[in-house]
Amino acid sequence: MTFSLVPVLLAQGSGGASQGxxxxxxxxxxxxxxxxxxxxxRPQRLRQKEHEKLVSAVKVxxxxxxNGGEHGIITSVKDKTVMIRVAExxxxxxxxxxxxxxxxxxxxxxxxxx
Length: 114
What we know:
Structural class: alpha+beta
Protein backbone atom coordinates (compact mmCIF):
# COMPACT_ATOMS: atom_id res chain seq x y z
CA MET A 1 0.00 0.00 0.00
CA THR A 2 1.58 3.19 -1.12
CA PHE A 3 0.58 6.52 0.24
CA SER A 4 1.63 9.73 -1.43
CA LEU A 5 2.01 12.86 0.65
CA VAL A 6 2.23 15.17 -2.36
CA PRO A 7 -1.57 15.74 -2.79
CA VAL A 8 -1.96 16.29 0.96
CA LEU A 9 0.87 18.84 1.08
CA LEU A 10 -0.41 20.65 -2.00
CA ALA A 11 -3.90 20.92 -0.51
CA GLN A 12 -2.54 22.33 2.75
CA GLY A 13 -0.20 24.75 0.98
CA SER A 14 -2.92 26.27 -1.23
CA GLY A 15 -5.14 27.27 1.73
CA GLY A 16 -2.85 30.07 2.91
CA ALA A 17 -2.33 31.59 -0.53
CA SER A 18 -6.06 32.05 -1.30
CA GLN A 19 -6.99 34.16 1.75
CA GLY A 20 -6.45 37.55 0.12
CA UNK A 21 -6.24 40.86 1.95
CA UNK A 22 -7.84 41.48 5.35
CA UNK A 23 -9.58 44.56 3.84
CA UNK A 24 -11.82 42.27 1.79
CA UNK A 25 -13.17 40.59 4.92
CA UNK A 26 -13.88 43.89 6.71
CA UNK A 27 -16.02 45.37 3.92
CA UNK A 28 -19.05 43.06 4.49
CA UNK A 29 -19.01 43.83 8.23
CA UNK A 30 -18.91 47.60 7.60
CA UNK A 31 -21.66 47.26 5.00
CA UNK A 32 -23.79 45.34 7.51
CA UNK A 33 -23.41 48.12 10.11
CA UNK A 34 -24.34 50.78 7.54
CA UNK A 35 -27.48 48.86 6.60
CA UNK A 36 -28.38 48.37 10.28
CA UNK A 37 -27.98 52.11 10.85
CA UNK A 38 -30.40 53.04 8.07
CA UNK A 39 -32.89 50.26 8.83
CA UNK A 40 -32.94 50.26 12.65
CA UNK A 41 -31.13 53.14 14.35
CA ARG A 42 -32.02 56.15 12.20
CA PRO A 43 -35.81 55.56 12.07
CA GLN A 44 -35.90 55.01 15.84
CA ARG A 45 -34.06 58.30 16.45
CA LEU A 46 -36.48 60.14 14.17
CA ARG A 47 -39.48 58.68 16.03
CA GLN A 48 -37.89 59.58 19.37
CA LYS A 49 -37.30 63.21 18.30
CA GLU A 50 -40.86 63.46 16.99
CA HIS A 51 -42.25 62.10 20.27
CA GLU A 52 -40.12 64.53 22.32
CA LYS A 53 -41.45 67.40 20.21
CA LEU A 54 -45.01 66.15 20.68
CA VAL A 55 -44.63 65.84 24.46
CA SER A 56 -42.99 69.26 24.83
CA ALA A 57 -45.82 70.93 22.87
CA VAL A 58 -48.73 69.68 25.02
CA LYS A 59 -50.96 72.34 26.53
CA VAL A 60 -54.03 72.60 28.70
CA UNK A 61 -57.10 71.12 27.04
CA UNK A 62 -55.27 68.55 24.89
CA UNK A 63 -56.71 65.06 24.90
CA UNK A 64 -53.95 62.53 25.58
CA UNK A 65 -53.52 58.77 25.68
CA UNK A 66 -50.89 57.53 28.12
CA ASN A 67 -48.58 54.52 27.83
CA GLY A 68 -50.79 52.53 30.18
CA GLY A 69 -53.85 53.13 28.00
CA GLU A 70 -55.49 55.81 30.14
CA HIS A 71 -57.33 58.57 28.29
CA GLY A 72 -57.66 62.04 29.73
CA ILE A 73 -57.57 65.77 29.23
CA ILE A 74 -54.67 67.90 30.44
CA THR A 75 -55.69 70.38 33.12
CA SER A 76 -52.26 71.80 34.04
CA VAL A 77 -48.73 71.57 32.68
CA LYS A 78 -45.52 71.71 34.74
CA ASP A 79 -41.86 71.27 33.80
CA LYS A 80 -41.69 67.48 34.09
CA THR A 81 -45.28 66.52 34.90
CA VAL A 82 -48.82 67.10 33.67
CA MET A 83 -52.10 66.94 35.58
CA ILE A 84 -54.68 64.88 33.69
CA ARG A 85 -58.41 64.70 34.30
CA VAL A 86 -59.46 61.07 33.73
CA ALA A 87 -63.03 61.43 35.07
CA GLU A 88 -65.23 64.03 36.75
CA UNK A 89 -63.39 65.34 39.82
CA UNK A 90 -60.54 62.82 39.29
CA UNK A 91 -57.16 64.32 38.42
CA UNK A 92 -53.92 62.39 38.33
CA UNK A 93 -50.40 63.73 37.93
CA UNK A 94 -48.21 61.93 35.37
CA UNK A 95 -44.71 62.35 34.03
CA UNK A 96 -44.59 63.92 30.58
CA UNK A 97 -42.75 60.86 29.29
CA UNK A 98 -45.86 58.74 29.97
CA UNK A 99 -47.76 60.46 27.14
CA UNK A 100 -48.07 58.19 24.12
CA UNK A 101 -50.28 60.22 21.77
CA UNK A 102 -51.90 63.66 21.76
CA UNK A 103 -55.13 64.78 20.13
CA UNK A 104 -55.31 68.54 19.99
CA UNK A 105 -58.14 70.53 21.57
CA UNK A 106 -59.84 71.20 18.23
CA UNK A 107 -60.16 67.45 17.54
CA UNK A 108 -61.83 66.91 20.91
CA UNK A 109 -64.31 69.77 20.37
CA UNK A 110 -65.25 68.49 16.89
CA UNK A 111 -65.71 64.96 18.21
CA UNK A 112 -68.02 66.09 21.02
CA UNK A 113 -70.20 68.24 18.78
CA UNK A 114 -70.59 65.60 16.07
